[in-house]
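does this look right to u?? magnesium ion version
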Amino acid sequence: MVAAPIPVAGWGDKDDPWECLGERSSGATVYRVGEVPSFYVKTTPPRHPDDHRFNPTKEAERLRWLAAQGLPVPEVVALDANDELAWVVTRALPGRPAARHWKPEERWRVIDVVADVARTLHALPVAECPFERRLADLIHQASSSMALGALDLDDVDPSHEGWTAQQLWDELSKMTPPAEDDLVVCHGDFCLDNVLVDPETLTLAGILDVDRAGVSDRWMDLALALYNIGQDDVMGLRSAARRALPPAVRHHRRPAQADLHPTAGRISLS
Ligand SMILES: Nc1ncnc2c1ncn2[C@@H]1O[C@H](COP(=O)(O)OP(=O)(O)OP(=O)(O)O)[C@@H](O)[C@H]1O
Ligand SMILES: [Mg+2]
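got this back:
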């Protein structure tokens, strides 16, 4: 248990126990609050505007928009900042992350839930989505993050481990960006630990971690999901994922998009 790093005002109880889940790859520090978890708190130190690591305001805006679209995302109960920290507090959703261990007979259903999340998100009205996450923006962000020294070089795929920011940038610059002709509302960090599944009914319990959601190419999500599933094939979900994810993935219709992702070359589809 740790001391609360922020004031508890208007939500929760000041006597609730706080547990720090650590600093995450996103740059957020995540806390679980309550005996039975009632709230999750994500904090960051103040960030430079060109620092594109986790941003509580972006997460809160996207959570609210996705909730208004009827998606099961956590309710935002506080968004605030002081001199040391900025934070967003959400109400805890039930369910367990799809990334956990599931019994063999449950796995197909779990991966179907994940695939359904992709279909539902990607069916949202692009014209009404106020958030952009287009390739040109990402390339620009990568460049400004590199200039700031704000790239997390510990969070690269194994084939790029030990590379400097400059080497990664040079590699990226050699690639020709593919045409973005399949724009949808993307999650932006579509990994199995960001989808919560009800362990009783094996249905969707929640979608988390949406600060990078926005209009982007469908492959942004699909490439990351497939990489994530293939990389940690702890549950034997890889073959299930190939079957359940949208047909475009199975047929590897647009390999250029998959290759664009920093995990290029690691996505092998049958
Ligand atoms: N409102 C919530 N309800 C239930 N669980 C939550 C909630 N918010 C966060 N969690 C749990 O905390 C974990 C980390 O939260 P989140 O994914 O939002 O942070 P993150 O900074 O992106 O972490 P990571 O880099 O590991 O993805 C989630 O995978 C989930 O297990
Ligand atoms: Mg997450």
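DSSP finds eight helices and ten strands in the chain. idk if thats expected tbh
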